[in-house]
Amino acid sequence: DWSDSFDYVLVWDAVHDLADPEIALREIFRMIKPGGRFSMVDPRAHSELADNLEDPAAPITYGCSLLHCLTLSLYHDGKGLGAMWGQELAVQMLQEAGFADVQILDVSYSASQLHFLCHKTYE
């Protein structure tokens, strides 16, 4: 049992590809020690299509998502979030998994990525 075993966990560009991202986020939460942190880096996007219209990188990200991310998830009868699941849904799912104080940070060397820094509070 790895409950409360890790001070820090990092997942890069992967949660949106999973068949059951909710279970993955809950398991990550379970494995992190109280007071620990979780970093999730994912594409910079909004959950609503209309909110991505001004992003010049959105068309290529949607294309990659369709051809790669969705196929991975849907092959396993998954949720099919895709790379453009968006920061709004990401924050909601992180909070539902139990994380508090979800911060959305820029990735200094990549304008196309966001860093979701989450904290597991002491019980």
Mean pLDDT across residues? 96
DSSP strand tally = 4
Helicity level: 25-40%
Count of separate DSSP helical elements: 3
Multimeric state? single chain
Strand content: 25-35%
First-to-last CA distance: 19 Å
Give the SSE order as H and E letters: EHEHHEE
Spans of at least 5 consecutive residues with low confidence: none
Tell me the Rg in angstroms.
Answer: 14 Å
Structural class, by secondary structure, is alpha+beta
Q: Which sequence of strands runs across the widest sheet?
A: 1-2-4-3
Major β-sheet annotation = 4 strands, mixed
| Shape by Cα distribution | globular
Description:
The protein has 123 residues and is an alpha+beta fold. It contains three helices and four strands. It has a four-stranded mixed sheet. Strand 3 and strand 4 form a beta hairpin. Helix 1 crosses helix 3. The protein is globular and about 40 Å long. The relative contact order is 0.24. The model has no long low-confidence stretch (mean pLDDT 96).
List the helices and strands and how they pair.
Blueprint: E1 6-12, H1 21-31, E2 32-43, H2 58-75, H3 87-97, E3 100-107, E4 110-119
Parallel strand pairs: 1-2
Antiparallel strand pairs: 2-4, 3-4
Helix pairs in contact: 1-3
Question: Which structural traits does this protein have?
Answer:
123 residues, alpha+beta, globular
